[in-house]
Amino acid sequence: xxxxxxxxxxxxxxxxxxxxxxxxxxxxxxxxxxxxxxxxxxxxxxxxxxxxxxxxxxxxxxxxxxxxxxxxxxxxxxxxxxxxxxxxxxxxxxxxxxxxxxxxxxxxxxxxxxxxxxxxxxxxxxxxxxxxxxxxxxxxxxxxxxxxxxxxxxxxxxxxxxxxxxxxxxxxx
Length: 173
Description:
By secondary structure, the protein is of the alpha+beta class.
């Protein structure tokens, strides 16, 4: 009987050590993600779309902790995903309860809008003119298309459904 309790104690200690390492890893990832800027302003055209991502507070999946799930933790997960994927700017599309949707962009440091910038109501935000990147598309892409790695691709994400066209405002019409 003593041998079994020794194994039980060892397994509990091993579990605590594993959980402790996970917390340290999360802290290191958060420190590495501190450079990621988040806001609601569209980035300038020199920024490259990396991906669109829906983040959820990890507590939302735990059976008894789901009530404690919140949007701040979902935004933190969105920031971590951006950092892990090489993005440095996130356009926050919406935040609802324990979920946050955003578009992750890789931008030159000088082109990143300030943290928490919000567009004025009824005013179209125009990014400052930046010199074209060396891999810019020639000729320039048509409205509704963006230059990504020297190729014109649809600026709408997700792509427009059949019969609709992506406009210069990145919205399907």
